[in-house]
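User: Structure tokens for both sequences below?

Assistant:
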Amino acid sequence: MLLVGASLALVFVKSVVVVILAQGVLVAGGVGVSMVFTRLLHDSLPSGVSALSSSAFVHFALLFGVMSQHVGVFHAGWMVVGVALLAGTLLVTVDVDRDFI
């Protein structure tokens, strides 16, 4: 929920201090979620899938850059909100299904 709140702050709040704090929360949370999913990935899938996840990040970053140039960074920020919601949902699903955390 903290990641979703921070991503929503990037979309709605125009204060520099709040945006910087929200970015810090997203980076820290992103690293934590990445560690959990990386462990799951390496435990259950062949190594070729790991390269696919890195490729997905690069494509997301490029798409975010293009969208922010054409429609503005605040509209492109909805992509971050969507990813935060998806990651949170997947993390809860994995936790409930596998008793992982």
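Moving on to the next sequence.
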Amino acid sequence: MLSSDGFRYFVIFVDAHTKFIWFYPMVAKSDVFNIFHQFQALIERQFSLKIKSVQTDWGGEYRKLNTYFKTIGIHHRVICPHTHEQNGMVERRHRHIVEIGLTLLGQCHTPLKYWSYAFESSVYLINRMPTPVLNYKSPFECLLKSSPDYAFLRTFGCLCFPFLRPCNTHKLDFRSSACVFLGYSNSHLGYRCLDLTSKRIYLARHVRFHEHVFPLGKSEQIAVPSVLAVTPADSTAGSTPRPAHILSSSSGSSSDSSHRINLCVDLSKFQLKQIPASVDNNSSQPARLHPMVLRPRPPKDVNFSVATPSRVATLPQQEPLSFKDANRYLVWYNAMQEEIQALHSNHTWSLVSSHPSMNVIGSRWVYKIKRHADGQIDRYKARLLPAAFLSKRGLIIWRRLAQWLSLQRYVLCSLLLSRMVGIFTSWMFIMLS
């Protein structure tokens, strides 16, 4: 998406040791080559160090750098195709930046065209967050060997009033104007402020903030419904309902104040009219005293073949890992039905009553795609297997043995088995397993 300052992409460089992030917005992906030269010059000048290795995902924007890396001796490490987990640290950082940036934009109702400022602010905050990976130190502290100034932080998107006297061209211009705080600048010790009137961005050091006011957010208002009848608690049955008291958080008045109200209504002195609900003689549930009509809850023991939505008829190329994923496809559903019918026809199990001495285990579905020698799909196979990882080794055998033998025979067999442990140790373990 095109940002307000003309950027469409961004690239990040992450230090593998300190986890510090450098953020660069880009107009096109081909700008990575020039941006890396700027980043390399920054590292060599500020830290007097040489970059030894760079790891990328072999995207098209990084292939041009491969030749440059060979000329200057930088080891270019590339992940395997379609295995982004090998580049997990950068992938997690990228996701962290996007999630925090979208949270900043959504919290203050800022348009998405300001995403570049929100993402840059999220990188600014992440670099100053303590993390347990670095023994509860921030990447800023690990890299620059100094603690960050948390008193400098402000709420993104809030109302602010920067000191604009040096920017004015006339003596009678106002010293400040209402702006929106859009983050920090890496090149200035100040704040980035967006003028709401002229849409101009100022970089100012002296700023007054109102961190609980967000000018870009629209206040949630509703119209007064004509059918809403509220009765005071101390009124009689024949009296006329009085209007509710409205609590407004703003001191100003608007032109449509007679038609719209805020969502702050004091209902402590009022009560809703209670409509008695009809009680069914055959129902055991208590009658509700409020007029709200509730939707009936579906029964818990619903057959999955009936409750599931319509299944797609496409042929999946990968094997599902769970029943929820497999039940969405018609071919896997038919395969499970065939497996259930085969188990019933072969009398695989028999239903018995439960007993506290039994070790009950569950079951799970295992899915496999059978293919021909040329790779074409032959059929879809589903098997219902017991969850053997929930059973306890040797528990069922000894409980069955204790129930079958009497007490005297059990003691005699235990003595014999204890004498045979030293001779037939391997045979004993094979039988018990």
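User: Anything stand out in the second?

Assistant: Residues 154-210 form one domain.
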